[in-house]
Specification:
The protein is an alpha+beta fold. The protein has one domain (5-82): 2-Layer Sandwich (Alpha-Beta Plaits). It is built from 2 helices and 5 strands. The longest helix is centred in the last third of the chain and has 12 residues, at 64-75. The two termini are 15 Å apart.
Length: 84
């Protein structure tokens, strides 16, 4: 199990960055964690190269404890490999 980097861009924006297996279900599972909380990401970037998927997701409106919890949940998604 790996962790996911949660970078505070400013007081209200968080950027999650992670690398995962290039499998069809990884990105929807990551976005579902936000959708369950009624959040729409400001920005989503995903790029597949060979067998790896690099993902960045920016979200506004998360309290610090919620941002950390979402980061831990993202790190538990099957296929998430590492933080970059």
């Amino acid at each position: 199990m790996s962790s996911v980097l949660a970078l505070k861009r400013n007081s209200t924006t968080v950027r999650y960055c992670f690398e995962a297996d290039a499998e069809p279900g990884v990105l929807p599972r990551a976005l579902e964690l936000l959708a369950k909380r009624g959040l729409v990401p400001n920005r989503v970037f995903a790029q597949a190269a060979d067998d790896a998927l690099s993902v960045e997701i920016e979200v506004e409106g998360l309290a610090t404890d919620t941002a950390e919890h979402v980061g831990r949940c993202l790190g538990q998604i099957v296929g998430v490999r590492a933080v970059f």
